[in-house]
Specification:
The chain is mainly α and about 90 residues long. It has 2 domains: about 1-55; about 60-93. Helices cover about 75% and strands about 0% of the residues. It has 4 helices and no strands. The radius of gyration is 27 Å and the shape is elongated.
Length: about 90
């Protein structure tokens, strides 16, 4: 008989990882409190430690990159429109 796997939501994972990060309880205590394997708790804790930096990254850099990309695309659109108008004018002769 196959064992059914539990699917934990992101809120639950964050709760368990934060509890592990606080280190007020041992991993064994957390395992019994949350009914999760120790390896899983360690994996979620590691993901939290590695991913926490992304929460505090400066998002203005990505915004500026998007604005530059939009400006570049507008220039290309303008150039193509000018070329199209020129060709229409030439073909009408």
């Amino acid at each position: 008989m196959t064992k059914i796997r539990k699917k934990h939501g992101s809120a639950f994972k964050a709760k368990v990882a934060l509890a592990a990060l606080k280190e007020k309880k041992t991993t064994a205590e957390l395992c019994s409190d949350f009914s999760v394997a120790a390896s899983q708790i360690c994996a979620w804790k590691k993901q939290l430690e590695e991913g926490a930096q992304a929460l505090f990254e400066d998002r203005r850099c990505t915004k500026n990159a998007r604005e530059e990309e939009v400006d570049k695309l507008h220039r290309v659109i303008g150039q193509l429109t000018a070329e199209c108008n020129f060709l229409e004018h030439v073909l009408k002769r």
